[in-house]
Amino acid sequence: MRIVGLIGSAIGLLVFLWAVYTHHVSREAHILFHEGSERGDHQKLTAANELFADLLRLQPRVLLPMHWAATQSSRAAILRTLGQMEHSTARLEEAVVTYRGALSECPRQRSPVRWAAIQNDLGLTLWRIGELEDGTARLKEAVLAFQAALQERTRDRAPIQWAITKCALGFPVARIAEREGEIRLARETATAYDSALSLLTSAGEHGLAAICRTGRDQLIALLNKNPASEGWPGSGKLPQ
Predict the structure, then answer these.
(1) Predicted local confidence at residue 228, as pLDDT
(2) What is the pTM of this model?
(3) What is the mean predicted confidence (pLDDT) over 21-36?
(4) How would residue 19 be classed by pLDDT, with cut points 50, 70 and 90?
(5) Long-range contacts for 209-218 (Cβ within 8 Å, ≥24 apart)?
(6) Using CB atoms within 10 A of its CB, is residue 77 exposed (0-12), middle (13-18) or buried (19+)?
(7) What is the pLDDT of residues 161-205, one digit of tens each?
(8) Rounded to 5 degrees, what angle do the CA atoms 30, 31, 33 make?
């Protein structure tokens, strides 16, 4: 019995040491990611990416699926940031694979809020790839990802997140409309901008509102130029 007790104590100590160490690694990785993102520091972002990769090896997917998914999502955010800095589709494609891996262990039924956040981030990544590539395949995937996020990010349940995703949706839609002349979706998306802008402004999210306004203005300019936009006022105002 004493041996069993000693084994139990040893296992408990190992679990405790594992928890302390993984918490330390995660904390350091997040600090490096935050500082690297704020300062555009490629070296810190790369170091954060390496730490998250190490952390994944310490979090068995089978035993800790939600922890693994959270770490995958964090690593994907770093890869997306690096991809944007480097104008690298390879980094961005790796981020897409990583986000989709996280989604496989974080289904909507299990964690709807986190699922929606990952879908939104996946949409941002696919949009960035679409901006760098010809065609509209990745842009259309971005639209689908944002639309999926909006299934959970409704105006009633999560108004700020709803507005953010609604605004983000406009960017790939504008590019698709520009490249393919797909005006219907552009018009539908444009009509949602005013309410999203109003919500963000009233909530004091002026930086996000400015980004949203940029997307709205791009769509308005596109629609005003397109002869297929019947009934579009051409005055910079959104249709009622």
Answers:
(1) 59
(2) 0.85
(3) 90
(4) confident
(5) 211/167, 212/163, 212/167, 212/170, 215/167, 215/168, 215/170, 215/171, 215/174, 216/167, 216/170, 216/190, 218/170, 218/171, 218/174
(6) buried
(7) 999 999 999 899 888 888 887 778 778 778 778 888 889 999 999
(8) 60
Residue 157 one-letter amino acid: R
What one-letter code names the amino acid at 184? Answer: R
* Structure token pair of residue 4: 């069993």
Query: What is the 3-class SS of 180-230, one letter each residue?
Result: HCCHHHHHHHHHCHHHHHHHHHHCCCHHHHHHHHHHHHHHHHHHHHCCCCC
Q: What is the pLDDT of residue 13?
A: 65
Would you state the structure tokens that stand for residue 117, as one six-digit string? 């956040």
Q: What are phi and psi of 72, to 5 degrees?
A: -60, -45
Q: 148-180 b/e with 16+ CB inside 10 Å = b?
A: bbbebbebeebbebbbbbbbbbbbbbbbbbbee
Please say if the pLDDT value at position 145 is more than 90.
yes
Cβ pair 91, 82 in contact under 8 A? yes
Please report the sign of the dihedral spanned by the C-alpha atoms of residue 116, residue 164, residue 224, residue 238.
Answer: positive
Residue that is written with structure tokens 């699926």 in the block: 65
Question: In this predicted structure, which of 58-62, 89-93, 124-128, 227-231 has the lowest mean pLDDT?
Answer: 227-231
Rounded to whole angstroms, the Cα distance separating 194 from 168 reads 14
Side chain identity at residue 206, one-letter code: H
pLDDT single digits (tens) 58-101:
888 888 899 999 999 999 999 999 999 999 999 999 999 999 99
